[in-house]
Design brief:
- This protein has one domain: 3-Layer(aba) Sandwich (Beta-lactamase), CATH 3.40.710.
- It is globular and about 60 Å long.
- The protein has 14 helices and eight strands.
- The termini are close together.
- It is α+β, with helices and mostly antiparallel strands and 318 residues long.
- InterPro entries: Beta-lactam/transpept-like, Glutaminase.
- Pfam families: Glutaminase.
Length: 318
């Protein structure tokens, strides 16, 4: 009998021997030093059963995967009013593009491109203050994992992102001219860079993603993290926009809502079934983990978890 444990072991072995591994994000010095051979994968099911393989317990910089969590906080704080400042549409452009902002009057296409995530950061800074927003983000995440104290922000990564983040500075200042950044730009960007410097392992990331798997509840406590409607909204945006200009290809290949980061991590969610995290630091041309995407594609081929199957949850190995 094929089990989920045996499936992810076989996937990890395939990834270990892959010759094409992508390229690390060399424009952020700490990420440029990460070993290209790293690979980890974790799957947490609705019943709490957890399967891990490879480097699943090794902390890494989640980068833009964090945009899922800041968006969750902003939706909790503002509700539908949020969509007056950022749209819900795919961008079709690179994650750090400035091109569309001029034609669209400083309103980003979605909250997962950098411009949109900076607006979300501005909203959270307005509500909580620059430093307290970081505290609130950690308070949002830590109750979702079994070892909460180990989730933290790497201040060195944040500092070096700030030192090299000229494109993000341009995006923020440009949106400020349209009134869509309402705090001091440096304060908003300081929170944004610290948010992207969140550090956790695949195991922890899969645990964190369980509130989206369950429709907005923390499965460890039963408490509601966010409304079911907001959880559905975030999953829809992950499907449409979670991989930037590679989102369509990811939807076809994997068929699950997912969010990538240039640290090589991907969070994917099979609603009502599993929360999945993969980490492989080598990126493809769109800035998404090359082997992470391939691993998720293999997982769905084995399990049938794609949301586009006629009966997507029929094949469910234990």
């Amino acid at each position: 009998m094929t089990t989920l444990a045996s499936i992810i072991v076989s996937i990890a072995e395939e990834m270990r021997t892959a010759s094409e591994r992508g390229t690390v994000a060399n424009y952020i010095p700490p990420l440029a030093r990460v070993d290209l051979d790293r690979f980890g994968m974790a799957v947490v099911g609705m019943d709490g059963a957890t399967h891990t393989v490879g480097d699943a317990e090794v902390p890494f910089s989640v980068q833009s995967v964090s945009k899922v969590f800041s968006l969750s906080m902003a939706l909790n704080a503002m509700g539908e009013e949020l969509w007056g400042r950022v749209r819900q549409e795919p961008s079709g452009s690179a994650f750090n593009s400035i091109v569309q902002l001029e034609n669209e009057h400083g309103i980003p296409r979605n909250p997962f491109i950098n411009a949109g995530a900076i607006v979300i950061a501005d909203i959270l800074v307005s509500r909580y203050g620059r430093e307290n927003a970081q505290t609130r983000l950690l308070e949002f995440l830590r109750p979702l994992v079994s070892d909460p104290a180990s989730i933290d922000i790497d201040t060195d990564v944040a500092r070096q992102e700030r030192a090299t983040g000229f494109r993000n500075m341009a995006l923020a200042n440009y949106m400020r001219t349209f009134g869509n950044i309402r705090n001091v730009v440096e304060d908003t960007l300081d929170f944004y860079f610290h948010q992207c410097a969140l550090t956790m392992s695949c195991h922890q990331l899969a645990q964190v993603g369980t509130y989206l798997m369950t429709g907005g509840r923390n499965p460890l406590t039963g408490e509601r993290v966010m409304s079911e409607r907001n959880a559905q909204t975030i999953l829809a945006l992950m499907m449409m926009c979670g991989h930037y200009d590679g989102s369509g290809a990811f939807a076809i290949r994997v068929g699950l809502p997912g969010k990538s980061g240039v640290g090589g991590g991907i969070l994917a969610v099979a609603p009502g079934v599993a929360s999945i995290a993969v980490w492989s630091p080598g990126l493809n041309a769109q800035g998404n983990s090359l082997l992470g995407t391939r691993a998720l594609e293999r997982l769905v081929q084995h399990t049938g978890w794609s949301v586009f199957r006629a009966n997507p949850w029929v094949a469910n190995p234990t």
